[in-house]
């Protein structure tokens, strides 16, 4: 860490002579300079098994608000860290606008405008780690002539209607769907009939074309709800939405690494429980996180590699990078999958925290390595601890959190428990609406997998945070 330069950067900051010389040396001596921009998330892993190539430079451009999450163990891998004060305006309402309209980040603008004068443009690889900043980073790449995907290169991986259209065109199985453009809709009665004809029955599931974290999604249970929903959104001139048939089965996420040589490497499959993530959160019930490497769950998910290969071939995402394929296994334990959507980035806070213990490959390590090292193959760390790990997350529930009371020591469980409290005692809560509303996550660790899974079941059935109305 003593060799990592750290700068508190403001929008009018000007590099001093030493800083400019340092960046110029990086540009002269390194094959590639990866600049990792982050706004909302801090460090989610320890960058386990990260091996930065000698000819790769790494600059972190991180929110000052997340600084406490970066340990010396993590910071030591960076050549330079730029800390800036992130503007979180609008983060509480993640909708189409915030995901498709570039956000102003004057600090990054100022940094890049100076950096391109001392680092060869072709050596700069600007990447992000959050869906909410993808459009912004695409804009910066275009503005400064940096290599890497533009907005239009990624839209078919982010726009849920385009995902459906590409899947249907290429024979990738997906749920029946209807696209609703409220700004062009004239007759809601006719639209309701057309939607019913395409889907074939109730309930239906609605979601925004652009959205993350279960925002702007929910069920339409009957014809009355469908017509009311259409009328409300036409009046509000809402953005386009997607309506789908409700899938039965098991929701899953297949995480893969898109390698520099144009091939892909399976990492792990994560799944929750019998309920969907959306249902778990909005019913305020505990949400378990499970996961294993592809080769360790072939019986649970037969032919899943073949399904993923079909998806990757159909969508042809830009390599190298991380990709997560989200879908439904129609019958648990059997071959038969529907694609729901994709994620072209690290998968998110919860899955990223678990990724190393699931697969021996940290999502953060993989993302940086894919962009730094053209020979990186995303092999699992042979030194990964031998114990198994799972998490249980507890959504908000209406009331006040009275304390950080944990599981009683007399509870009939054998796992080591680690608590990550996300809400302070005294906080008044409403029922959870989206994936930003969690009280606490509990990490369970055990060398015996059967005992681990039994303890997960016990926690979900018997323990709740200390919330009182």
UniProtKB/TrEMBL annotation:
Keyword Nucleotide-binding: yes
Coiled coil: none
Domain of life (superkingdom): Eukaryota
Keyword terms of this UniProt record: ATP-binding, Nucleotide-binding
Alphabetized GO MF terms: ATP binding; metal ion binding
Keyword Nucleotide-binding among record annotations: yes
Domain ATP-grasp: start-end pairs: 164-372
Stored InterPro entries: ATP-grasp, ATP_grasp_subdomain_1
Name by which UniProt lists this protein: ATP-grasp domain-containing protein
């Amino acid at each position: 860490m003593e060799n990592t330069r750290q700068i508190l950067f403001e929008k009018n900051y000007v590099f001093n002579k030493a800083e400019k010389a340092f960046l110029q040396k990086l540009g002269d001596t390194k094959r590639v300079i990866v600049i990792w921009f982050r706004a909302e998330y801090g460090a989610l892993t320890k960058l386990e098994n990260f091996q930065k190539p000698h000819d790769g430079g790494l600059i972190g451009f991180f929110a000052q608000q997340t600084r406490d999450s970066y340990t010396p163990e993590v910071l030591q891998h960076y050549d330079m860290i730029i800390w800036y004060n992130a503007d979180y305006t609008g983060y509480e309402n993640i909708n189409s606008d915030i995901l498709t309209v570039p956000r102003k980040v004057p600090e990054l603008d100022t940094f890049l405008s100076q950096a391109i004068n001392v680092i060869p443009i072709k050596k700069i690889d600007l990447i992000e780690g959050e869906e909410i900043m993808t459009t912004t980073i695409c804009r910066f790449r275009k503005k400064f002539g940096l290599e890497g995907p533009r907005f239009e290169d990624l839209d078919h991986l982010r726009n849920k209607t385009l995902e459906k259209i590409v899947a249907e065109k290429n024979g990738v199985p997906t749920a029946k769907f209807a696209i609703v453009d409220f700004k062009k809709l004239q007759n809601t009665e006719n639209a309701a009939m057309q939607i019913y004809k395409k889907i074939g029955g109730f309930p239906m599931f609605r979601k925004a074309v652009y959205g993350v974290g279960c925002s702007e999604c929910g069920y339409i249970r009957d014809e009355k709800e469908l017509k009311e929903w259409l009328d409300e959104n036409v009046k509000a001139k809402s953005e386009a939405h997607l309506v789908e048939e409700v899938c039965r089965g098991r929701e899953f996420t297949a995480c893969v690494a898109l390698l520099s040589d144009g091939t892909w490497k399976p990492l792990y499959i994560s799944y929750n429980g019998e309920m969907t993530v959306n249902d778990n959160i909005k019913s305020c019930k505990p949400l378990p996180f499970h996961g294993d490497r592809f080769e360790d769950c072939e019986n649970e998910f037969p032919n899943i590699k073949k399904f993923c290969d079909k998806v990757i071939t159909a969508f042809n995402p830009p390599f190298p990078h991380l990709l997560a394929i989200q879908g439904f296994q129609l019958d648990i334990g059997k071959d038969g999958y529907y694609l729901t959507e994709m994620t072209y980035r690290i998968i998110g806070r919860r899955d990223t925290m678990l990724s190393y213990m699931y697969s021996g490959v940290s999502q953060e390590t993989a993302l940086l390595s894919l962009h730094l090292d053209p020979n990186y193959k995303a092999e699992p760390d042979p030194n990964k601890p031998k114990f198994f790990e799972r998490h249980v997350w507890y959504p908000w529930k209406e009331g006040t959190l009275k304390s950080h009371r944990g599981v009683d020591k007399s509870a009939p469980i054998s796992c080591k428990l680690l608590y990550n409290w996300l809400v302070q005692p005294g906080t008044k809560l409403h029922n959870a609406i989206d994936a930003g509303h969690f009280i606490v996550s509990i990490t369970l660790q055990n060398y015996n997998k059967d005992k681990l899974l039994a303890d997960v079941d016990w926690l979900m059935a018997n323990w709740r945070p200390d919330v009182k109305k």
